[in-house]
Amino acid sequence: MEISEIVKEMLLYFGGTSAVLIGLVGFLAHLSSKRIINGELAKHKLDLENAKSQNKIEQESIKHTFSKEIKEISISNERNLQLVRLEHEKALSIQKAESENTLERVKNEMNVAFLKSETYTSISKEMFQTLFNKRIEVYSNLLNLKIEIDKSRLDHAGYLAFNEEDPSHFTTAVYKINEVSQKDSMLISNELAMLSNELYQKSSQVFSNAKVQEFYAELNSSANNNGQANFESMMDARDTELRKLFTECGELYESWFQQLEEDLSKIRMILDFSGEFLKKEH
Fold first, then answer.
1. pTM, rounded to two decimals
2. pLDDT tier at 3 (50, 70, 90 boundaries)?
3. What 3-state class would DSSP assign to 164?
4. Contact by Cβ (8 Å): 192, 259
5. Alpha-carbon distance 22 to 181, whole Å?
6. 200, 220, 260, 280 - which has most CB atoms within 10 Å?
């Protein structure tokens, strides 16, 4: 029997050519489906691994960022706590200093009160009356000096308006204040005495410099004029220095007169009170 006949017999045995082809197609389809499914599974598995890896990277990044932020917040909180601690220590230091100053001031006030009490008890009534009368006399002279200075300023108002740089009027006033206040410094108030002393010290320095400059001007002019002094250059040198008295003693000069008014007001109040007291007694 030939091979072709054998094949035909086998095909007939399995149901013919169509049946064999259908079976073969089914077998091939099964193999193809299995390969496709396996490929899809492998792809999904790879995608899953990639997703896991990406998620892990993102989680590490988030964890790192979160740790960094936590650390920054911790550092910031520590700095804020340090600032609060420093502010608190500063406030305590200021409060302590203020308390110490207050305590020291109270001690000083108590000492002053004690000294006043001791003074009042040690000085007899007659002696106090004598000192008060002398003080009234001194302040009367100071008041007269103020009136004299004010009158001079008023009398020379026109001249002073056109000769603002002329220091003679201000210099004379300061010189007279120094002369009177230094003479009776123990009988004026402590506040006025301090102002008088400061005015005397500053003005004396200006007066001294003016004399020195006048002397130098005299020497220079004598050398340039065959031994003849130039009076005008000497006066210019002196006045140039005396003009500094305005800036050196101007505010102090005004403060002196303000304190004088306050002292005079206190004396008037004492006299008024004494007068009312004597009226009630009699």
1. 0.51
2. low
3. coil
4. yes
5. 142
6. 260
